Amino acid sequence: MAVAEEFIEQTTAMAVEEKAKLQKHFTRFDIYFFLICTIVGVDTLGVVAAEGAQGFTWLIFLGIFFFLPYALLTAELGAAFTEEGGAYVWTRLAWGRFTAAINAVFYWFSNPIWIGATLALLTIGTVNEFFFDIGDGSALHYIVGLAYIWFSVYSAILSFGIGKWIPTIGAWCRIAVLGLFVITTIFYAIDHGLSIPSGGEFSPTYALFIALVPVLFFNYVGFELPSAAGDEMKDPQKDVPFTVLRAFVTAVLLYGLPILAVICVLPKDEITGLDGFMTSVAAVFTVYGGAADIMTKIAAIGFVLALVSSACTWLMGSDRSQAVACYDGAGPRVLGRFSAKLGTPVNVNFLSGILSTIVFVAATRLTDGSAAATFSVMIGIVLTFTTISYIVIFPALIKLRYSHPHVHRPYRIPGGMAGVWICGGLCTFWAVFASIVAIFPGFLDGELLNDAGLPEDVTRLKYTLIAGIAIGITTIAGLVFYKLGEPTRRQMVEVPLKGNEDLAGSAVSGD
C-alpha cells in the first residue's frame, strides 16, 4: 500500500471529466513539425541579424550553453510526466498548485499580447511591402490584422486532428523559405560577391550580449509546448525525446544558416530590425532577373504563413496549459472547459483572441508621442513574461528527480544527477539573467545600470515603474485565478499517476 501510494495523484473531479473529452491525434510526425514551427520564429531573424556578426556569435553561444541543455531537460520531463498541461503539470508536481497557478498566468498571458502587438503588425508590414499598399490605421489595416489574429484563434479551436496540419504546413514553409534563401545567397555570392564581416566583428561584447539575451532566449524556447497536449499524444514516452533532440539540430540549422547568410549579404547598417530578413530576401533574389519579383512574393507568402503558424502553435500550447490549470483548480472553472466535439479549450482560445485584438487596436492607434513610448515599453515587458515563467519551470527538473524518483523515466539526461544539476542549473540561470536584463536594461554594462540601454525618450524611473506595475498586475491576476479555482479544488479525487496505472491500482481501489 505504501509503495502504491507513491503513484497516486490528487486531482479534481473536473479534471477527470474534461480529460475524457481529449482525442489522441498527436503522432511523432506531428510533434516534430509542431516543434519546428514553435521554436523557429521568423519574426526575430531580422532582429538578431541586425546586430551583425556579433548576433551570430551570441546565437551559437546560447545554442550550446542554453538550447542544448534545455532540449535534454524537456526530453526527460516530457517523457516522464506526460499528462495534459505540460509545464503547468511539472511545476505543480514540483512546487505545488498555488505557485503553478500564478506561473501559468505568466506563461499564457504573453502569447496573445505577442500575437496582437508583434506578429499581426509584422504580417501587415509584409503584405504592405510586397503585395499592396495598406495605409496606417486604414480600414484595410484593421481587416488584415484582425483576419490574422482570428484565423490563428480559429486554427487553435479546430480539432487537433485538423488543426495540427497548420503547424505542419508552417514548418514546411519555414524550411522552404529559409532553405531557398540560403541556396539563393550562394548564387548571389557567385554573381555579386558578399559583404563578409571581418573576424573582429564576430568578437563578442557584453553590451550587445545583454541586449540580445532576451531575444535569443525567446527565439529558443518552446520545446515543452507540445507536452501541453500530452494526453493527446499517441506515445509521448517515446516520441517526446525522439522529436525534441532532432528538432534541436534542425532549429540550429534553420536559425544559424539564414542569419549567417543575412550578415554576409547586407552591410550591418542596411539590416533593419523586424523586416531585416525579408529585406535580405529581396536583395538576394535579384539574381533571378525578371522572375525576381514573383520569387520574392512567393517567399513573402511563405513568410506570412510561417507567422500564422507561429501564432497557432503557441495558442494551441499555452491555451491548453492555462485550461488545464483551470480544470485542476488553479483558475476559473469556465476557462477549464474543453469542447466535447473538438477536444480543444474553446473558452481560453476566445479569451486569447480578445486580448490580442485589444492589444492590436491599441498598438495601431498609439503610433507616436509619450503614450506610444509607454505602450511600447509595456509590451516589451509583457513579452518577457514567458521568460519569467521559465524561472519556475526549469528547476522543476531537479526537484522532481528528488521528489518523484519512483516515476519511470524512459529518457534520462546523461551524467546522472550531475547532468541533471548542470542542465537544470544552466537553464534556470539563463531564464533569470534574461529576465533581469529585460526588466533592467543596461544591467552591469560598465555600471550597475547603464541608461544607454533604455529605449529612446524613456527614463529609468518610468521604465522600472512600468515593469513593476505590469508584473504586479499579472501576479494579482494569478492570485485571483487561484481564488476563483477554489470551488473546483473542493472536489478532489485520487487517480493513478499517468504511466504508472498498474502500480497505483491497488491504492486507488483501496485493496
Task: Describe the secondary structure blueprint for this structure.
Layout: H1 2-5, E1 8-12, H2 13-19, H3 28-39, H4 45-49, H5 53-80, H6 87-95, H7 97-130, H8 139-157, H9 160-163, H10 165-192, H11 206-220, H12 236-265, H13 276-284, H14 292-330, H15 346-365, H16 369-382, H17 385-393, H18 396-403, H19 416-439, H20 460-484, H21 486-489, E2 492-496, H22 501-509
Antiparallel strand pairs: 1-2
Helix fraction, binned, reads 55-70%
Average pLDDT rating: 86
- Going across the major beta sheet, what is the strand order? 1-2
CATH topology: Amino acid/polyamine transporter I
Number of strands: 2
The span between the termini is 8 Å
Let me know the CATH homologous superfamily: Amino acid/polyamine transporter I
What characteristic shape results from the CA principal axes?
globular
Beta-strand content: under 5%
Structural domain count:
1
Q: Report the radius of gyration as a whole number of Å.
A: 23 Å
Query: Helices and strands, in N-to-C order?
Result: HEHHHHHHHHHHHHHHHHHHHHEH
- Report the uncertain regions: 503-511
Instruction: Give the second-level CATH assignment, the architecture.
Output: Up-down Bundle
